[in-house]
Amino acid sequence: MNAAKGVLNILDSVSFINPFPLFPGIAEFFDDFFSHSDNQPDGVIKLGDSYENMSDTQLVRLSLDNPDRFYYLIKRYESRLLRYIRRSTDASREEAEDLLQEIFIKIYRNLNGFNQKLKFSSWAYRIARNEIINQFHKKKAYTSKIGLNIDDNDNNLTDFVTDALDLQDSYISRENAEKVKEALAELPAKYRDVLILRYFEDKNYNEISDILRKPPGTVATLINRAKSGFKKIARRHQLESLI
Fold first, then answer.
1. Which of 31, 136, 188, 231 is most buried as measured by Cβ atoms within 10 A of its Cβ?
2. Does residue 3 sit within a domain?
């Protein structure tokens, strides 16, 4: 491969046979690669750091004009989507990173079909969610009880428990944090999904509606049923001190 044409040209490959070690960290690798002036594609040179002030839609348009600029969307969404994969599954770090590559390939290949009147982040999360389901359905693991990769110190965990259990305030010990994750993991996938999107990915009802392709009213019903189901499971996990 001719590096002068830009490393992101690998996304044009149907089979995506990639000779470069994209992980750990797609964006980090590109940062290192582009730090050598001989390797910098024109789009990166022209944009510099200004991409941080651009909207997602602007970056989509730039990416369609010059594939090298897709780098900036990867840089913006890599950590978010990797965290979403980890929170939604029991995938190892390596498995999550492999899946993240597939998600970015799918995003890139479908970029022409993105409706620029809609929110790019919701569209990207929808693709990520579909890839997660496809990947874990193969293992018949997605719809069954799984161990979620949620950090015990994740502030969203406390916020979730406080709201889901209708508490004024709560402190979650490490032991209870594990029980909360176990209870959350026992929920049916459709309820687990909406709770992770709402409380851990901080998506509002309209965003979740776009991601799931369900009306906002249906999303609200799913969230309420999910919280009710979580309460019942929480009791079985001896979380009475939080209820």
1. 136
2. no
- DSSP-derived secondary structure for 191-203: HHHHHIIIIIS--
In this structure, the answer to whether residues 226 and 111 fall within a common structural domain is no
In a domain, 145, yes or no: no
DSSP state letter for 197: I
For the segment 227-239, the average pLDDT, to the nearest whole number, is 83
pTM of the model: 0.76
Number of domains in the chain: 2
Query: Could you tell me if 37 and 71 are in contact, meaning their C-beta atoms sit under 8 angstroms apart?
Result: no
What CATH number should be reported for the domain holding residue 173?
1.10.10.10
For residue 112, count other CB atoms closer than 10 A to its CB: 8
Angle at 207 between CA 206 and CA 208, to 5 degrees: 90
Our CA angle for 175, 96, 154, nearest 5°, is 30
In this predicted structure, what is the pLDDT of residue 90?
A: 83
Describe the chain by its helix, strand, coil percentages, rounded to 5.
Answer: 70, 0, 30
Residue 117 and residue 199 share a domain:
no
Segment holding 138, helix H or strand E = helix 120-138
pLDDT at 234: 83
CA angle centred on 235, ends 231 and 240, rounded to 5°: 105
* Omega before residue 24 within 30° of 0, cis: yes
Instruction: Please say whether the beta carbons of 234 and 187 come within 8 A.
Output: no
Q: Is residue 197 part of a domain?
A: yes
Closest CA to 197 of 73, 80, 79: 80
d(CA 21, CA 201): 28
Q: How far is CA 185 from CA 63, 65, 85, 149, in A?
A: 37, 42, 14, 10
